[in-house]
From TrEMBL:
Protein name: Malate synthase G
Main location: cytoplasm
UniProt xrefs under HAMAP family: Malate_synth_G
Keyword Signal set for record: no
Protein's organism: Croceicoccus pelagius
Record-linked SUPFAM superfamilies: Malate synthase G
UniProt-annotated catalytic positions: 319, 610
NCBIfam families associated with the record: malate_syn_G, PRK02999.1
GO cellular component: cytosol
Cofactor(s) named in the record: Mg(2+)
Gene3D superfamilies linked: Malate synthase, domain 3, Malate synthase, domain III
Gene: glcB
Pfam families in the record: MS_C, MS_N, MS_TIM-barrel, MSG_insertion
Self-association state and partner proteins as the record states: Monomer.
Length: 705
């Protein structure tokens, strides 16, 4: 039985209420009664609007489903289709010429270009690693990954041959980023002999290094003759530290499994620890207890002899939950659960005031802003709702208008198709738009679920809509003034063990004109930073802007598999691929509460999986099942085959509960529901089913033996 306390008519889980009052409000000098009454008044105003917007999603989807059913077997006429979408309000008129008016934006977002991390808030150690990934060792990144060679990292102690290769590669990197007036860094014999081709790149000196800047990013060449590497180096260079993850999204949404008050309290506690600079995590490594905390800023002496510093940590966003989900942490006066996104907006913003009031040991924003990423918004009405909600939160917390900035995730089809109108709805607080293949595909399939069977999942990358989506997002952002004021982001590199391939392919993201892109680890951030040294993104943005905005028609092209007859082998291959990814993710989510992790794919390649990737696999299987491409028996056979595969892949995990022999358990049942109930899920989202089965799992674990 959950213990609750009444606050202004709200029934709040007792421990959560105590946390809010003692840890969040008291240091701010805020009256708890005023806070709870303001919260209750806000909810009274915004909950009905939230519910109405969700009802509109369902209404639009029903109309689109009916339109496709009435034209079954007919080729989609684009003119007719667009006219229909305008008629029902799915498409809206363009807002005309405008530029965003966002002010007080930190440089990491507005005027710098570099990697971005996304990290689950519930894992304090990972959060600290991400926040501290502002700086990374290039030597470590090359030595410990396949970015240097295709050969695996040698086992045992230090490998001198590989070390020499790392140093040589490091010198080549310096020749590109900070070239000398003559010769190569490989020939340098002392720190005193450095003469740059562009002396303006020299910024100053650190305790043991020289600090340089290129394309707005800093790097430190460390000279230390006493260091194990430095003492073997003829110039005494011990390392090259790159400014890497400029920003990090601390995630309360797709990468976490937060289903109740206990989970939310832990999430908010970690966010508070970040805002106050007190978060720590202890863990065992090499038989010793290690404690991780936030890095301090990095001091240096500028060229004019004055003391200066650079940020030692990523600038932190917090990603709130979208508009759909509710949470039992707080019950409304009618007994229903609170919309989780509204709860996040109020509590994470109140916590962020600790940073604005400089109550902690370290600072996040230096411009007095709070950065919230808002995911899963469908179209401009929902963006306006977020804008209005943030207005109300600012008023409730005594914040100046537009203190709370917003990042808009362009991961839903109605948002993509109306992106300019979405930006316009939040034009004075927007600091971020993001596009990524993975997130968007699930909604693409669900929106057109009744149109017919979709092409295979792997073929989506070559479809018309994805190419238009990736190009339009950047072009629309540039047209409306995001360059120099906000981030235009690209999606995740999903394979953390394939850094060599990442270095080859991910340069495509800055080449699109995006000034940030997601990476799966601090090491990946260090390596991806090299791409922003190779590409002057802001110069590239001018080129992209001149190309104009691709037309809407291709974005709306439904990826149907017209006239395709797959072989039995192809059908089995596709089902197995989807089922394996689905089961591998769900079993950790439901049984262990792990919202994001490196999950081996069907070929045993570790891929970063979250609910967005799960949505794709489940919706694809549901689509093929709906249109008779595969049968229920074939789907069940695939799930059973892949249950054994997933069990084998997790054999080394002591906490893992096998799927085979436990088919009636919450994890396997959740996976089945995601497919067989996939058509009826709101927007194809996985959260309602995952939350229900995770809560059932937690209840079973808490029940007396």
């Amino acid at each position: 039985m959950v213990e609750r306390v009444e606050k202004a008519g709200l029934k709040v889980e007792t421990a959560l209420a105590q946390f809010v009052e003692s840890d969040v409000l008291a240091p701010l000098g805020m009256d708890a009664r005023v806070f709870w009454q303001g919260f209750a008044d806000l909810l009274e105003k915004f909950v009905p609007v939230n519910r109405a917007l969700l009802a509109k999603r369902d209404d639009l989807q029903a109309k689109i489903d009916a339109w496709h059913k009435a034209r079954a077997g007919k080729k989609i006429d684009m003119a007719e289709y667009k006219a229909f979408l305008f008629e029902i309000g799915y498409l809206v008129p363009e807002p005309g010429n405008f530029e965003i008016g966002t002010e007080n934006v930190d440089a990491e977002i507005a005027t710098m270009a570099g990697p971005q991390l996304v990290v689950p808030v519930l894992n304090a150690r990972f959060v600290l690693n991400a926040a501290n990934a502002r700086w990374g060792s290039l030597y470590d990144a090359y030595y410990g990954t396949d970015a240097l060679t295709d050969e695996p990292v040698p086992a045992g102690g230090f490998n001198a041959k590989r070390g020499a290769m790392v140093i040589a590669k490091g010198r080549q990197t310096l020749d590109h980023i900070v070239p000398l007036a003559s010769g190569s860094w490989a020939d340098l014999e002392s720190r005193d002999a450095i003469e740059l081709a562009n002396p303006a790149q020299f910024v100053g000196t650190t305790e043991k290094g020289n600090l340089y800047v290129h394309n707005g990013l800093h790097l430190e060449v460390v000279f230390d003759a006493d260091h194990p590497i430095g003492k073997t180096d003829k110039a005494g260079i011990a390392d090259i530290n790159l400014e890497a993850a400029l920003t990090t999204i601390v995630d309360l949404e797709d990468s976490v499994a937060a289903v109740d008050a206990e989970d939310k309290r832990e999430a908010y506690t970690n966010w508070l620890g970040l805002m106050r600079g007190t978060l720590e995590a202890s863990f065992q490594k090499g038989g010793k207890t290690m404690t991780r905390s936030l890095e301090a800023d990095r001091a240096y002496t500028a060229t004019d002899g004055t003391a200066a510093s650079l940020p030692g940590r990523s600038l932190l966003f917090v990603r709130n939950v979208g508009h759909l989900m509710t949470n039992p942490a707080i019950l409304l006066p009618d007994g229903s659960e609170i919309p989780e996104g509204i709860m996040d907006a109020v509590i994470t913003s109140a916590i962020s005031r600790h940073d604005l009031e400089k109550l902690g040991k370290l600072a996040n924003s230096r411009t007095g802003s709070i950065y919230i990423v808002k995911p899963k918004m469908h179209g401009p009405e929902e963006c306006k709702f977020t804008n209005d909600l943030f207005d109300a939160v600012e008023d409730m917390l005594g914040l100046a208008r537009h203190t709370i900035k917003v990042g808009v995730m362009d991961e839903e089809r109605r948002t993509s198709a109306n992106l300019a109108a979405c930006i316009h709805a939040v034009r004075d607080r927007i600091v971020f738009i993001n596009t990524g293949f993975l997130d968007r595909t699930g909604d693409e399939m669900h929106t057109s679920m009744q149109a017919g069977p979709m092409i295979r999942k792997g073929a989506m990358k070559g479809s018309d809509w994805i190419a238009a989506y990736e190009k339009r997002n950047v072009a629309i952002g540039l047209k409306h003034g995001l360059s120099g004021k906000a981030q235009i982001g690209k999606g995740m590199w999903a394979a953390p063990d394939r850094m060599g391939q990442m270095l080859v392919e991910k340069i495509g993201h800055p080449m699109t004109g995006a000034n940030t892109a997601w990476v799966p680890s601090p090491t990946a951030a260090t390596l991806h930073a090299l791409h922003y040294h190779k590409v002057d993104v802001f110069a590239r943005q001018q080129e992209v802007a001149a190309e104009g905005i691709p037309p809407l028609d291709k974005l709306l092209t439904v990826p149907l598999a017209d006239g395709v007859n797959w072989s039995e082998e192809e059908l089995r291959e596709e089902l197995d691929n989807n089922a394996q990814g689905l089961l591998g993710y769900v079993v950790r989510w439901v049984d262990q509460g792990v919202g994001c992790s490196k999950v081996p794919d069907i070929n045993d390649v570790g891929l970063m999986e979250d609910r967005a990737t799960l949505r794709i696999s489940s919706q694809h299987m549901a689509n093929w099942l709906l249109h008779g491409v595969v049968s229920e028996d074939q789907v069940m056979e695939a799930l059973n085959r892949m249950a054994a595969k997933v069990d084998e892949q997790n054999a080394g995990d002591a906490a893992y509960e096998p799927l085979v022999g436990n088919e009636d358990g919450p994890a396997f049942q959740a996976a089945k529901d995601l497919v067989f109930k996939g058509v009826e899920q709101p927007s194809g989202y996985t959260e309602p089913l995952l939350h229900a089965w995770r809560l059932r799992k937690k209840e079973r674990a808490a029940a007396p033996a």
